[in-house]
Amino acid sequence: MELAGKDVVVVGAGKSGLAAARLLARAGARVVLNDKKTLAELGAAGTEAAALAATNTLRLELGGHPAAPFERADLVVLSPGVPVLAAVEDARRRGARVWAEVELASRFLKGRLVGITGSNGKSTVTTLVGEMAKLGARPSFMGGNLGDALTLALDTPAAGPDGVVVAELSSFQLEDIETLRCGVAACLNITDDHLDRHGTFAAYAAAKGRIFQHQTRDDHAVVMAGDELCLSLARAGSARLHTFGPGGEVDVRDGAIVDRESGLCFPLSGLRIVGRHNHWNACAAALIARLAGLPVEHIEAVLASFPGLPHRMVEVRRLGGVAYYDDSKATNVGATVAALEGLRGMDGKVVLIAGGVDKGGSYGPVRERMDALGRAVVLIGEASPLISRAFAGSALPLEGATTIDDAVARARRLARPGDAVLLAPACASFDMFRGYAHRGDEFARAVLALSEEEP
Fold first, then answer.
1. Which of 5, 165, 188, 311 keeps 20 to 30 A from 397, CA to CA?
2. Global confidence as pTM
3. Over 90: is that where the pLDDT of 278 sits?
4. In whole angstroms, what is the distance from residue 32 CA to residue 11 CA?
5. Residue 195 confidence (pLDDT) above 60
6. DSSP of 292-309, one letter per residue?
7. Active site amino acids
């Protein structure tokens, strides 16, 4: 699509939207930057947007989504996380193109794009691969749904033909791609999530599967061995198929991550990230990195040094023989199940703190794991009644808490030496917190405030 002279509305005036708007303006488009927030509510981003508007680089439409700019639009570009908007859908029906910001960025990238999606683990794997790429001689960039907007890569050497761009891609972003093609594309797993947005699991899975849609026989598709859903999505594309995990090209054998193709043999004891699910994340990252042309020594160096991301199975404290883990980023059932599975084999049992804003889907898988691994469940937030119903008939004690401090205190009383207290909520956080990071920070504060004395 030729952008010069086109009317383009960019929805979302944060970091991603601003980067997209600047790129479109440089390409000669007539840009309207739109956000439901006012200039004051946007803060620093609003100051930058106002400065661009003052130079006639773009026009601002803030405080809502008025119909007029969308009625004139040839193209609408969506920042990550923008909800379904009537104005956007009306523009689509009138024939306007609708692109995710990553689609816009991909049209200007000349090097290798490595795309990673999945319900759980994609941020960890993206960061691992991004750090591995950073050690190499080729210029690299990491972003997308994690960190910097993909459009910002275009201001770096990584956008050139020798560059490696590693991008986390969400289902929201993949919904609205047209031509985005990944030289290496990975879908780590698909479990119930964002059904409040996609409506059905099938629609959610189809959005994830779009990461493989435009690949050719020169490209690589990566999925977990034995995951029939992800395998079927990858096979719908034309890329060469590669697998990690049990029986895959990169697997855990005799206590080590092994890739016979590259010669990698990295002991699990050398990993700093916790949990069995992170063993598979490490396998996935090693395979993706090898397919992206990264040397084995860089893969080994990052596996040995990477401490994990905040709020993803971070050990906060050990007190009275009980370990306290912050996995606040477990915002869906699949992530909570993965966290529980990661603790399988520990000496004690798990006291789970769960709840928040329901995202659709069944809590049955959490009940199943907790019946096998659990000591007790402490519930917080709006979804407490839904989760409680899923545990009907369970022998596990269930307690409700009104605050995170109350939840931590109850969990401490329920736990026994050798146990783990795990914050893995299986829900969004916006009923009680500003986001998952705020929830995790408050959990850590409450845990660190516990007295050394017996409660």
1. 311
2. 0.90
3. yes
4. 9
5. no
6. TT--HHHHHHHHHH----
7. 122, 145, 194
